[in-house]
From TrEMBL:
Name of protein: SH3 domain-containing protein
Positions of the SH3 domain: 121-184
Entry keywords, A to Z: SH3 domain
Keyword Transport: no
Origin organism lineage: Eukaryota, Metazoa, Chordata, Craniata, Vertebrata
């Protein structure tokens, strides 16, 4: 049906991109479940699978999206007059010369050999196919047939990869075009080298070095684990006091020397320019002095042939110059640092830092060619050694990696790049920037044919946490649900999803801990946790305790949402499946608590006999002479069960025994409950005085409790006591109890109990002790509670009740408020057509009362359209009649009532064969025509009304029809017919008359007959009617003195 269609409108390309991304990672359906379904559906879904599946015809959608993009590119092309971009766009549109387009725009190089088509992401060993002489210390020289071990990953779409010579152990960059796969070279999936790590651990452990093979290179000096290193600090000596010796540089040279990587060097590589200037180097007046000092140190190291010291000094100088926006000078230093070493780079963190800073400078200078060349080398290091990610200055090389992977259709390389980008932004505390790459990573994982070696559940949980930080609760909850549905989900993932959902609700909904603990949203995670604890064999004792806790939580959820049978099933299953032969890991107290809870569920499910058997078994297992807190609870519940079975005497005995035990043990909460149960039992038996005493005592005990958690029971007792006071007409005491209960549950954030207390107060001020002002206040509070709960149907009914209160007040201000509380919007949202139609009609009536006639017809027309869409003839007829009633008693617009009664409602009533409705419409139509002096047409309608009344045997309506016919004939000056119908009306007079109004009616009839006889017919008859009038019994005569005495009426005749 068209009214059930959901239309999705996209305003920007970003919204289209986000929608498709959410669809591909599978969270749109869960978002729809959260928005459209009632929360209790999550509980029902445990029994029968209930999901919202979203399907998109991706091919037409992609064509549409691509055509819009092409149009946008063409438009921008013509605006910028860039013909070259237009040609490239045409290539992209036609799908032709795609490789050439990629080469020109991203500098792929000239190699696209068979190796690229064989493997997308490779590890293992490869063979050199041609001779190559290294052009710098960062590269490896090759000879045909050399075996090169791939460090990390080899991605064919990139120009370089990190390799290690099998013969010498040297590590450096190798051109991808110069190698071919060795038979043992394998194609791998993303993150296969980090099988023992999940994505969330990797993203959060920023300072932990990778322990995998691709992160550890022989002789590179990388240390495992992190050490607490003291801050590094060097003194800068002024140039004017510095002699020509190298004594001032000894600490600096000692720190920077050596080929291999050290952890303290890695700390320096990652420092910002500000930290280097202010903390690492001290004693200088400004940055120029520091740069001059380091430059002299560089020259000294060069003279002494301290190549690695010189290389690191060039790096520091380049970084300081770049920080001062001296990019040309920075490039000189960085390029020098790449040329100084006489042997290959063993400190690959230093090499990555140099490349990263070079890429940053080229990006700022918009030197695209050199940026791509440096990015290629940096990407090779990042693919080989993820620890080099800490050296990254900005994300443009990784962005380049993503773009090139996408254009090369290398999904695994794209996933790896997205993973590195997400990790980089996470380490930089840029969670918002990490979200799109983590989303893209999950898209690649879902689209892959092979399984991925890292946990998708961890990826979704990480994404859900980021959504939560960005205040996107629906996406966060959907991510948690998606994490729990993965095939590789574990018990920790399931519990992590539940914790994330509870955190989201607490953060964005502001609910208390007590309300949050019973959220239906967590039901699927509790159920899945139960399933996972059953399939896990290891740690069975721990799993049994966990199953106990999860089962109780689920039972509480079912009980709170009135699904008691499901709660009984889960709890009974847990008790039956408890290990009989092994020592039970839960205590006897917890076992009895489970049985007592099961008994209560049976009582609530109207199975008191089963509950009594369970309670008897618990009671028999307790020592006879030992009183425990549970014994008082069991006796109290036995009283409840016996009371449900009708055995009030035994119930009272158990309640009293529970009171005695709780009093002896000082158990105030159960003592108060037992007293309240005794009071309710006395109320049921009719002992009102005794019941009041017990209930008051229960209230006293509850008020003495210092700990929380008993507000719900306390409020229930107060409401029962207040109801008792109201029935005894002690209204002030009743008000006090109701308001006390409302305060308790308001502070405890118990919305359902707030609703109950508020309804009691509304009933009190609406009927028992009428006070419209107080009734309005509590009615509005009731609406606020229902809005917080999310019960839209009851909220609409409450708004409608408030609207009726304002309408009864009748002032213009109240009528304006009435429009605000109509509840029309809620009825529209819920699809309640009848209430929606009456809402439109009521709004039209209010505007009619306010005199805004230009809006009346609009709202009434809307009401008619809604009613017609229902297709219910009876409802349409009622609404049209109600629309006519709006104008019935209005002298100015009575003709509009004629339209609704005669032209619209009456034909439908005739077709629907509804004589009562037709009679009612004829009576109203006659009254309207009589007011408009349409006597001739009104006679026909009144005649029809009289015929229907005779057919139905309705004496009252027949009298009314006769009287109206007489009045109409009198208006038409047909006095004989008027006299005839007046006389017929008198013959239908019941004996005796029951009401004063009925007596006055017949007095008017007699008076009218007298007037007709005296003035219009034979005067001699007037005396006859006078005699008849005087012969009326005293009981027939009206008590009112508003009419003149008969002698006054007869005086003109006596004179004659």
């Amino acid at each position: 049906h068209e009214e059930k269609v959901i239309f999705v409108t996209f305003k920007t390309f970003e919204e289209i991109w986000k929608f498709t991304t959410y669809y591909k990672i599978g969270i749109i359906g869960h978002c729809m479940e959260k928005l459209l379904l009632d929360p209790t559906v999550w509980l029902s879904s445990l029994v029968e699978e209930i999901t919202v599946d979203v399907f998109i015809q991706e091919e037409p959608f992609n064509v549409f999206y691509r055509s819009i993009l092409i149009f946008l590119f063409v438009f921008q092309t013509f605006r910028a007059a860039q013909r070259k971009l237009y040609i490239q766009c045409m290539y992209l549109n036609s799908g032709q010369s795609f490789a050439e387009y990629v080469k020109c725009s991203l500098k792929f190089g000239e190699h696209l050999d068979s190796f690229c088509s064989l493997l997308l992401l490779a590890r293992g060993v490869c063979l050199a196919t041609a001779e190559y002489i290294a052009e710098g210390p960062d590269e490896l020289s090759l000879a045909p047939g050399d075996r090169v071990i791939i460090v990390g990953f080899l991605v064919p779409c990139f120009d370089w990869f990190t390799g290690r010579m099998e013969a010498t152990g040297e590590v450096g960059l190798v051109k991808t075009s110069l190698v071919k796969p060795y038979p043992c070279c394998i194609d791998v999936c993303f993150c296969s080298t980090e099988r023992k790590k999940n994505i969330q651990m990797i993203l959060t452990q920023v300072k932990q070095s990778s322990e995998s093979e691709d992160c550890t290179v022989d002789n590179n000096g990388t240390q495992e684990g992190c050490k607490d290193l003291s801050p590094i600090c060097f003194s800068v000596h002024p140039l004017e006091v510095r002699n020509k010796s190298t004594q001032d540089f000894i600490p600096l040279f000692s720190f920077l020397k050596g080929r291999d990587y050290r952890e303290e060097l890695g700390l320096v590589y990652g420092l910002s320019t500000e930290v280097l200037t202010s903390c690492t180097f001290t004693g200088h007046s400004d940055e120029d002095e520091l740069i001059a000092f380091l430059d002299v140190a560089r020259e000294t190291a060069k003279k002494k042939q301290l190549f690695w010291t010189q290389t690191r000094l060039c790096y520091l100088l380049g970084k300081l110059c770049a920080g001062r926006s001296k990019f040309s000078q920075a490039l000189v230093y960085f390029e020098e640092s790449l040329c100084v070493p006489q042997e290959g780079f063993a400190d690959l963190r230093l090499l990555a830092s140099i490349y990263s800073n070079l890429a940053a400078v080229h990006a700022l200078q918009k030197n695209r060619d050199r940026l791509f060349a440096v990015s290629e080398r940096l990407v090779a290091l990042l693919l080989g050694i993820p620890d080099c990610l800490k050296s990254l200055e900005e994300s443009s090389p990784l962005t380049y990696m993503v773009k090139k992977s996408i254009l090369s259709h290398n999904q695994k390389a794209e996933a790896r790049a997205c993973y590195l980008l997400a990790k980089h932004h996470w380490e930089c505390a840029e969670g918002e920037q990490a979200v799109p790459y983590l989303e893209r990573l999950l898209v690649a994982c879902n689209a892959a044919q092979k399984s991925w070696s890292f946990s998708l559940s961890d990826g979704y949980l990480t994404l859900g946490g980021l959504y939560n930080e960005l205040h996107l609760p629906h996406l966060s909850v959907s991510s948690a649900k998606r994490a729990s549905l993965q095939p590789s989900v574990t018990l920790s993932d399931c519990l992590g999803s539940m914790i994330l959902v509870l955190d989201i609700v607490d953060k964005h909904c502001g609910m208390s801990e007590q309300e949050t603990s019973v959220l239906p949203l967590v039901a699927p995670y509790l159920h899945q946790g139960l399933v996972l604890t059953k399939v896990q064999e290891a740690g069975s004792m721990y799993n049994h305790v966990l199953r106990y806790q999860l089962t109780l939580c689920l039972c509480q959820l079912f009980y709170k949402n009135k699904m008691v049978k499901h709660a009984i099933s889960y709890l009974q299953s847990f008790i039956n499946n408890s290990p009989p032969s092994e020592p039970v890991p839960i205590s006897v107290l917890e076992q009895n608590s489970a049985l007592i809870w099961l008994a209560w569920l049976h009582i609530d499910n109207n199975q008191p006999c089963i509950a009594l058997d369970i309670l008897d078994s618990v009671l028999s297992s307790m020592p006879e002479n030992c009183t425990t807190l549970q014994k008082g609870v069991v006796l109290n519940m036995r009283g409840v069960a016996l009371g449900s079975m009708g055995d009030q005497l035994r119930a009272a005995e158990n309640y009293q025994a529970a009171v005695n035990i709780c009093q002896e043990d000082g158990d105030l909460p159960n003592w108060a409950v037992a007293q309240a149960n005794l009071g309710l039992l006395c109320l049921k038996a009719g002992a009102k005085g005794l019941a009041q005493r017990y209930l008051v005592r229960a209230v006293q005990l509850f008020s003495e409790l210092k700990e929380g958690g008993h507000e719900e029971e306390f409020a229930s007792v107060l409401l029962e006591l207040g109801l008792h006071y109201v029935k005894q007409e002690l209204l002030d005491y009743g008000k006090g109890c109701y308001e006390w209960a409302l305060l308790l549950v308001t502070f405890a954030l118990l919305f359902s109990d707030q609703l109950s207390a508020t309804r009691h107060l509304c009933h009190l001020y609406g009927r028992e002790s009428p006070d419209q002002c107080q009734c309005l206040i509590y009615s509005q509070h009731q609406v606020h509670i229902l809005s917080s709960i999310g019960d839209r149907a009851q909220e609409g009914d409450a708004l409608e009740a408030i609207s009726q209160l304002y309408l009864s007040l009748g002032t213009n201000r109240c009528l304006e408020w009435d429009l605000e509380y109509s509840g029309l919007g809620i009825f529209i949202d819920l699809g309640c057509k009848e209430k929606e139609a009456y809402g439109w009609l009521k709004a039209g009536k209010i505007y009619h009362l306010l005199g805004q006639t230009e809006l009346v017809d609009i709202y009434i027309q809307a009401a008619q359209e809604v009613a017609l869409r229902t297709g219910d003839t009876g409802f349409i007829l009622k609404l049209l009649e109600a629309a006519g009633d709006i104008f019935l008693n209005n002298c100015q617009d009575q003709d509009k009532a004629l339209t609704f009664y005669r032209d619209r409602a009456l034909p439908i009533a005739v077709r629907s064969s509804s004589p009562l409705t037709r009679l009612r419409l004829c009576n109203k139509l006659t009254a309207v025509m009589l007011g408009l002096k349409m006597y001739e047409e009104a006679v026909k309608v009144a005649q029809t009304a009289m015929e229907i009344s005779v057919t139905l045997g309705d004496n009252l309506n027949e009298r009314v029809a006769c009287y109206r016919l007489a009045s109409l004939y009198q208006g038409l000056e047909q006095y004989e017919m008027a006299e005839h119908y007046y006389l017929r009306c008198l013959t239908l007079c019941p004996t005796p008359l029951q009401f004063d109004e009925e007596t006055l009616f017949y007095v008017r009839v007699y008076q009218t007959l007298g007037d007709i006889t005296f003035y219009d017919l034979k005067p001699s008859l007037y005396l006859t009617w006078s005699i008849l009038y005087t012969s009326l019994p005293a009981s027939y005569l009206p008590t009112s003195t508003s009419y003149p005495p008969l002698s006054t009426l007869c005086q003109p005749w006596l004179i004659l």
